[in-house]
Amino acid sequence: MSLDRKTVVLASLLHDIGKLIYRAVPPEQRHSNRHQELGFLWGKSAELPPGVREAIRRHHAVRPQDPKYGELAPEAYKGPLEIKNLIYLISEADNIASGMERGDFAEDSSGTYEIEQAMGVVFDKVALNRAAQQKYSWEPSLLEDVPYPLPDEEIPKQKVANFYKNAWASLRDALKDPVNFQEDRLLLILEKYLSQVPEYTYVSENSWPDTSLYYHLKSTAALSLCNYLYLTENGCEWSNLDLKRTIGKRDEKRYVFVGADLSGIQSFIYTISSKAALKTVRARSFFLDLMIESAATQLCEALDLGRSNLIYASGGVFFLLAPNTKAAQSQLDKFHGKFNSWLFENFGTSLYLCLATEELSGSDLMGKEGHLQGAWSSLGGKLRLQKDRKWESFILKDPEGFMHPKPVEKECQIC
């Protein structure tokens, strides 16, 4: 059996589910089991595919002298090569995602692991010169309960522990329905129950967890799928070769950071008649939100990507992570031309979708030498350049047809 896209995404989204289980079980179970083992036992009871279960159990590196090396190490797995390569694929994506989220976490050895630590507030790290710095954490509750940040010392540890237990009980019940393992449904369920669960529990004076387990799983799925599609296009044989070294090459530009910006929003929204102006502004603003969401969804589908790869979509822009493949580049070009053709047919030249890309390696994504920050800046520059050269390809392709006057079908009330 060859490795397939569905298995890669499912294993990625569930690889660290044991972290929530570990925090929810009694202390005596934590002493005898690591989070990988607890996740594996749940996966076995849920009858997950063998490859997914092994990815949950073996996605962390384990030292040869570790007493559980044979049970947990990727290298110690003796089964089919496609499952072993899946484990390596998830492990590499997990490491890159952790590097993106934790920064200099490994360099800070002054802290301890605190199981009952609530998720910190990222804005604590943004302070004005004269502002008194105080540590805040989110109330331990689901997003639907509208949690609010509080001083960390005001949040009882028992309340955090109870939240983890309840979150796991609810998530476990939701995952008893096989329908909820479908990619988009699973992502929504994980967002509901894991958005307020910290990705890690290491706490020190200068570092505390402020990224959620949900976003870690989402990032891992995006990275592993991109790596899988890149290596598949380049002829990797998942069932015949041990691909550990190939999968772990972080210097190759395997990823593409895609940015889109809808130009002409202000003029489109505010060029209105005076009658029912406020309702019209709101309606047009809502329409543009739906349009950018639709554009992002269409592009993900064209690239064979899921919602995990969508980083952000709102306010007339969207960003996503795609594989750096010839097939992806072809689909990006095709989508860009097709979507702008639709905009021109329906709205003339008032709206234009700028689309740009920036190639990235695994090391870039982990923030080495400021490359990720530079990629954001470079992508923004490319989008701004496109705004200054809107419709260029259309004019060059058919200047007479593009510049030819169009008949006026209806005049506005003011005209």
What is the fold's blueprint, element by element?
Elements: H1 5-14, H2 17-24, H3 27-32, H4 35-45, H5 50-58, H6 69-72, H7 81-102, E1 112-113, E2 136-138, E3 149-151, H8 157-174, H9 183-194, E4 202-203, H10 213-233, H11 244-247, E5 255-263, H12 265-270, H13 277-302, E6 310-314, E7 317-323, H14 326-347, E8 352-360, H15 362-365, H16 371-387, H17 392-397, H18 399-403
Antiparallel strand pairs: 1-4, 2-3, 5-7, 5-8, 6-7
Question: What features would you highlight for this structure?
Answer:
415 residues, alpha+beta, 8 strands, 18 helices, two-stranded antiparallel sheet, 4-stranded antiparallel sheet
Description:
The chain has a four-stranded antiparallel sheet, with helices on both faces. It is α+β, with helices and mostly antiparallel strands and 415 residues long. The model has no long low-confidence stretch (mean pLDDT 89).
Residue stretches low in confidence (pLDDT < 50, at least 5 long) are none
Total of DSSP H or I helical runs spanning 4+ residues:
18
Instruction: Kindly report the spatial arrangement of strands forming the biggest sheet.
Output: 6-7-5-8
Please summarize the sheet with the most strands: 4 strands, antiparallel
Q: What gap, in angstroms, lies between the N and C termini?
A: 67 Å
On the 0 to 100 scale, the average pLDDT is 89
Structural class: alpha+beta
Report the oligomer: single chain
Shape: globular
* Helical amount: 40-55%
Strand content: 5-15%
Number of strands: 8
Task: Spell the H/E element sequence.
Answer: HHHHHHHEEEHHEHHEHHEEHEHHHH
Radius of gyration: 24 Å
